[in-house]
Input
Amino acid sequence: MADLTSALVDFCMVLREDHGFAVGRDTAYDALAALERLGTDNRARMRARLRAIYCTRPEQIEIFDRLFDAYFDSGSVGAPQPKRARQKRPDDRGATPENRDSRFQLGEESAADSWMALRARYSPVEGASAPPAVPVEGYADADALVRRMIERLRLGRARRLRAAARGARLDLRRTVRASLQTGGEILALKRREPPLRNPRFVILIDASRSMIEHAGPALQIAHALCRRTRRASAFAFSTSLREITHELRALRLQEGRSLDGIGEAWGGGTRIGANLKAFARNFRSKLDDHTYVIVVSDGLDVGDLSDLQRATREIARRSAGIAWVNPHAAEPGFTPTAGGMLAVLPYLTSLTAWSGLTDA
Amino acid sequence: MTADELRERFAQHGYIADDDVATTFELMLALEKPLLLEGPAGIGKTASASVLAAALDTRLIRLQCYEGLDASSALYEWNYPKQLLHLRLTESDGSSASQREAQIFSEPYLLRRPLLEAISQERAPVLLIDEIDRADEAFEAFLLEVLGEFQITIPEIGTFRAKQRPAVIVTSNRTRDLSDALRRRCLYLNLTYPSYEREVEILRARLPDIDERLARQIARFMEFLRAQPFEKVPGTAESLDWALALVRLHRDALTEATLEATRGCVLKVQEDWELLRSMRARYAPLLDRDPNAPAERVIPEPDYGLGTVTTH
Output
């Protein structure tokens, strides 16, 4: 049991440090309490218990299960034994990919699971570019545009009621309270009203090769949005989709600073439909009727247009609206004739260039 | 109660729980921690809470979340008409303002809402906080306090502390991302669609009269449907509805005509039905031939305006 406890503590550290699980002291205590109270004689049940304690999101379950198998013997009967006693792990802070224990590097390969991804990785035409930087020049204009957009966007009123001097609904609680000051006589009616909705934003940046030259303004807008409000999420997509919200928030605006580790989400092939589909399926919780979605893309999709159409319809259905920013829309005489643009047009709130975003 | 006992009791109430589900419920009861159940709609999250209450022979208290739900609707409310009436009746009885205030803000004037009700029970109930993702973040933050301490303070009366900690089940369909703080305070179970064998078992448990072949056909067809990119993927609730409809209609096999007639039980979005129709070649092998259908499909041949029509 002592060996098992040590392994469990080590297991906690790997979950937290290598895989970003929110494992604190309370969680570790719960895990030990579960082992003590419910026993360790059945490996499958011990795994189910620890999974319920350590995992907080569905995407963590696969990582947890693989790591559990790496840590604890796979005999199906009897007490699970740690595969290794607690030992000094390589110092993760200074670790390079080579000197880290390869058993614990999970999930990296899962991003490149499709033939398209593999083709793009090895194709000289569609290979990933250098990590992008947020240009400093013109940033003030982008920031002002974002500020105006946040100020002007109105998504109607929420359902929750708040105290308001001229609200339409009666606030009986406050009315009765106030009446006590006048011997129970109601002299003034207190009122409530629903407040304005506080909008959220999701920005999806097409970072395929055809869009790379327009990526600077898109990153400026995304950066300004993520820095100005906590209610914003940013994604980049090319061969694959990746959330870049945290990277953008952490990035200090300075010449030469770039978004490292963005991988195949930048400068690869064009798969708008597949990526929007992945977004609609995997990040559904980012969407609700308070959320305004901004897609930055030229709509030049080489994939299946029915995927693109279905994904856009799904996003439109689950959000407050979609503003599609097409950099070519600023050109005189622009008409959306690309197949991708025609497929999504019925589901857009607006199709615009950057300058029209605040009118959306 | 052990996982095996829970499984058995769940089965007695028509809920087929796999070992992971039973083990997680056992853990929830052992650690007295809330359980966050996530998964698509219609997969048995709410049902699991009512079955747990039945298995523990205790009361189920349900708080249905919705947009705009606030603390007063979840905790307690004062009975305002009764308070106003009392104020009117005691206008001339000589009591002071503070006495009257103390009277109207006391327990007889308190309307207990689900959270306070759950905390006040002598015997630990099952508290179901259903579809928490429909409530807003402010309510979620408020809920954290209640789930952390299991006590509620009413300024006019005092603090209510749970005599017995309720077994709390929080469900979410993931229409909104829940905060990390709430997730950290809960145990976690992600419910997914049942496997083919599990679905057959569920159908037989809930509808003992169902024909074995029909149950297998439905389960196989649902497995096919769930692999498609539908807007509204059917869950277990839909397969049970569908099976019940077919049993009531005295159908013992799934045919093209039956599918057409009862599709509303399974597919709730017109675009999904159109998408399914476009896949006829793929799902046809899962259906029986309709015994009343003609032996060969008759296709009218165009007459090109010549006035003769032949068929083959």
